Structures are given as C-alpha cells and as structure tokens.
Amino acid sequence: MESSAKNKELYQDMVKKASPNSHIFKNCIKAFVVGGIICCIGQFITNYLKELGLTQNDTGIYTSSVLIFIAALMTGLGLYGKLGKFAGAGSIVPITGFSNSVASPAIEFKKEGFVTGLGAKIFIVAGPVILYGILTSVIVGIIYYFLK
Amino acid sequence: MDYLYAFLVGGGICVIGQILIDKTKMTSARILVLFVVVGCILGGLGIYQPLVDFAGAGATVPLPGFGNTLAKGVMYEVDQNGLIGALTGGFKASAAGITSAIVFAFLAALVFNPKEK
Q: Which residues of A touch B23 (CB under 8 A)?
C-alpha cells in the first residue's frame, strides 16, 4: 500500500517534469502551423495583386489591409478568439493579431459608450505597440541621419 | 516555392513568440510590443530586409515586418527630407496599417456585439 502511494508520488513528479516541455512543444507546433498558414494567405494575396500589376510597395499595403479586414471580421464573429485559444502565438504574432488587438476591445467596450468606452479603450493593447514602434523608428531615423 | 518559404519563416517567427509566452509568461501585449520594436531595430540595421526578400509574406506578415516597415519608412523620409524625416517616416509608412485597423475595428464594433465567454 505504502509503496503504491510512493510510486504514485514518483509518477506525479515525473509527469510534472515531463509535461511542461511536451506541452510547450505542442503549443509550438500549433503556433508554427497556424502562423505559417496565415503567412501563406498573405503570400497568396501578394501574388494575386502582383499579377494585377500593382507595385511592390502597393501590394504590401493592400495585403496588410486585406489581412487586417479579415481578422477584424473574424474577431466580430467570435472566430478569431477561438483560433487564438488553439494557436497561441500563431494568431498573435502575424499582423492579423494586431488587427484583433484593436477590434476586440472596440467591440468589448462599445457598451461603455462610443467615446469613453470604444474610443478610449480601442488602443488598450495596440497603443503600446504604436508608441514603442514609433519611438524606435524616430531613434532609428536620427541615428541613420547622422551615420549615413 | 515562395509559399514554402513564407510558411517556414512565418511559422518560425510565431514559434519564437510561443516559446517566449510559455517560458517567460510574457503577455500577448508585451509580445506584440517586443516584436515590433525588434523588427524596427533589425530593419534599421538592414538585417531584416534580406529575410523579406527571401521569405516574402513570411517575413512581412508577422509583426517584426511591421517594425521593419517603420524603419524603412523613416530611413526613406530622412533620405528625402533630412532630419525631419525621423519624425514623419514612421507614421507615413504605417499609416495604411494603423488606419485600416481603426476603420475595420470600428465597423466591426458597429455590427457585432461581444460574444459571451
């Protein structure tokens, strides 16, 4: 009886040691596949627009906008949240995750009003991204000016 | 072939994010900030663009690609207009992305209501 209890304890220790890593591995596979597929959709849109004769710069802008539109729509339908639960970083890291981070609080906080709710909270996640992204770009620009 | 590279590189960048989430317990908001800032720095150093040339959307669709766009925009504006470009380049380059996110998010908020969790 005692030994079986001990074995159980030992086994639980082993599970504890082994599971975080296999858990992380599984998450990584999911993130890899979903992130990869989203990028392939982006590549498909890019290739299609290039065939229409758009310039390199314009295809980039249109591709981002289309992906942002799809993600905002999926967020509204509640599908992007479901995808996020499955894919983790695979749905956060692509530009669609940025779109989701804007659309999700916009929908969520609408009930608190269009100015103090939706308006104030829409950038609750994307705000820091824009702040630190723009700050970094200014620093890059200044350094580039003096070094080029 | 470009789909394969886009899949591998794009998926790979997401795996880096997943490892950060699982190993460091970083929230998704911090991951977003980190990836854009790192992409902007790599873009400024000229390291990210070769990855874009190689992997196409695999490098531009993930958020470091957004950071790279900021860096490219700011350097282009500095070339065109001098130091003032450091202030104008970032928002100019990201204008379409940020504005579409705002417009589509607002429309989504008009049409949809929050889903119960």
A: 24
